[in-house]
Amino acid sequence: MSERLRTALSLAASGVPALPLRAGKLPFGNCPVCAKNACGGRPNMLKAGPCHCPAPCHAWAAATTDPNVLASPSWAQAWRKAVAVAYHPGGAGVTVVDLDDTEAIAWARETLPATQTVPTTRGEHWLYRGAMQSANGVRDGVDIKSTMAYARWLGPGTGAMTALPDVVRALTVKEPTAVRPAAVTVPALAQGGRCPHRTPTYLERGIAMAEQRITAASSAVHATVYRTFLAVLSTHGRCGCLTEAHTVRLFAAAQAKGESARHCTDAWTNALNTLGM
């Protein structure tokens, strides 16, 4: 048994999902069955765990605490080639603030509460108890690694791990930027019929409910945004009462949840195409 596999099994025994990394600190590629996510993929899952294939597939989602999986013959080749061990912080209920350089470390010491720290090649990992969404480049030299991400295991570090503070959570919250979505081109009512919504109140209530649905999403934000756009367009998209001001509100709600302007535009366009508009 390799030293790296022993490390992974030790992590798994303490409830930390582990996986092997190949050269370049990268996870192993998908097996042939899962190539190009033909199996449906795991990247959008919120919990770690291997898919139903014989190899450590789908990056962070391959991380597992099951010793039978980690030490299985189908993982043996990966462990023989592995150059490091990684873990899924979010699966262990942990958030890693990855500080890449001395300037980032200096910022953390001035801004963040003290917690368990682990030295890295160029900087430090600050570990907090509690999971959150992951994000890269939240500021110069600072990444957040927690759910749907992996981090190298570099040892237990020093200090006591403290609870995830709001100041760290706030690092991933971005102010929504003003977006002018493409104008919605929809067919006019047949024979010049009346708008079925009768009053502006009906539309206003629908847009407000759509904003609330997006804002309340705690997971699968991409899918929630698309389904909400689809519902709005299917109800209000063909009568001519949906304006750019309404779509700007929906885009702003999506961006407040971390969606990019491009993702908003793509979701809107896909919804239009689905409805044949």
Descriptive overview:
The chain has about 280 residues and is of the alpha+beta class. It has helices at about 5-15, 65-70, 75-80, 100-110, 165-170, 200-215, 220-235, 245-255, 260-275, and strands spanning about 20, 25, 85, 95-100, 115-120, 125-130, 135-140, 140-145, 150, 160-165. Strands 4, 5, 6, 7, 8 and 10 form a 6-stranded mixed sheet that branches. It has a 4-stranded antiparallel sheet with strand order 2-1-3-9. β7 and β8 (about 140-145) form a beta hairpin. α6 (about 200-215) runs antiparallel to α7, α6 packs parallel to α8 (about 245-255) and α7 crosses α9 (about 260-275).
Mean pLDDT: 83
Strand segment tally: 10
Strand-and-helix sequence, N→C? HEEHHEEHEEEEEEHHHHH
Shape field: globular
Annotation field: number of helices = 9
Cα radius of gyration in angstroms: 23 Å
| Amount of helix | 25-40%
Strand proportion, as a percent range, falls in: 5-15%
Unreliable stretches (pLDDT < 50, length at least 5) are 183-193
* Secondary-structure class: alpha+beta
| Largest sheet: number of strands, sense, barrel closure | 6 strands, mixed
Q: How far apart are the first and last residues' alpha carbons, in Å? A: 59 Å
